[in-house]
Design brief:
- The protein is mainly β.
- It has a domain at 227-263.
- The chain contains 2 helices and 17 strands.
- The protein has helices at residues 208-213, 258-261, and strands spanning 2-3, 15-16, 32-33, 60-61, 74-80, 89-94, 99-103, 113-114, 116-117, 129-131, 140-142, 144-145, 152-154, 162-168, 171-175, 181-185, 189-192.
- It has a 7-stranded mixed β-sheet, with no helix packed on it. The chain has a 4-stranded antiparallel β-sheet with strand order 7-6-5-8, with no helix packed on it. It has a two-stranded antiparallel ribbon with strand order 1-2.
- The protein is globular, with a radius of gyration of 23 Å.
């Protein structure tokens, strides 16, 4: 993490990821793409996700979420920041000449040699990928497939990890970070270790303008709106129009207390 001298008020609390850890080599253009900014609107032009819009143009990098090039060692060539993902990504070079981008696992560095396994591995390291059937219970996993050949769908965010509890009857029990236990096929792929960028929780934006660069629009309280815009709008002062909190679409958000029900 990097802090700044408080030369201005915007720099006083600013704490960002230190970009000195990233490689200076440019991303390979064949893996890059640009995504249309929908600003939270659907194909009718109606807002379906609030508080989205504007933001700086970003590059989307296609990464390998399947990791099924078994038995071919590869080396981490460089590490990059990704605007569309909270975790870092890395450029990997396989021994047979194939190159691709993969999500970076915590405590894996440039020049580390890793591999994808499809059988009982002799020496499994942090950052390797393997079919869950051959992983020892009690191992920390990330980038887990929910169904075989569907690509990684679980524990993909920065610092996330899951715990492999047991394997029986062709199903693996995995405890997610939330505490929920899922039973998935033991033929799914997973990475060994936790995701990179564990310090993301300590990032402080510093000023409102930086949030606008990220594409986040301001969040306005419902009681500050007009009645046409929100069920809480209108009235004098801070008085709400309805007895219970409601969503912008009028549905009840919280159940009333028992005392109010039996008045």
């Amino acid at each position: 993490m990097k802090t700044y001298r408080p030369l201005t008020s915007a720099l006083r609390q600013l704490c960002l990821i230190d970009h000195a850890i990233f490689s200076k080599i440019k991303l390979i253009h064949i893996f890059n793409n640009t995504l249309k900014n929908t600003a939270g609107r659907n194909h009718h032009g109606h807002i379906t996700v609030r508080h989205k819009g504007s933001g700086v143009a970003k590059i989307y990098t296609k990464i390998d979420m399947y990791s099924r090039l078994f038995g071919i060692p590869f080396t981490i060539n460089s590490i990059y920041y990704d605007a569309y993902r909270s975790a870092f990504i890395s450029l990997v070079l396989y021994q047979n000449g194939i190159i691709s981008y993969r999500a970076l696992v915590y405590k894996t560095f440039i020049d580390n040699k890793l591999m994808s396994h499809c059988s009982i591995p002799n020496n499994m390291k942090n950052g390797d990928s393997c079919i869950i059937k051959y992983i020892t219970p009690g191992t920390i996993l990330c980038n887990i497939e929910l169904y075989p050949y569907y690509g990684a769908q679980l524990s993909k965010s920065a610092g996330c990890s899951s715990l492999l509890l047991k394997i029986e009857n062709e199903y693996a029990s995995i405890r997610l970070r939330s505490g929920k236990v899922l039973n998935i096929s033991m033929y799914c792929m997973a990475f060994i270790g936790a995701m990179s960028n564990k310090n993301l929780r300590y990032v402080k934006i510093g000023k409102a303008g930086r949030n606008r660069w990220l594409g986040n629009r301001p969040t306005v309280r419902g009681v500050a709106m007009n009645p046409v815009d929100h069920p809480h709008g209108g009235g004098e002062g801070k008085k709400s129009k309805r007895s219970f909190p409601r969503t912008p679409w009028g549905k009840q958000k919280k159940l009333p207390s028992i005392r109010l029900l039996f008045k």
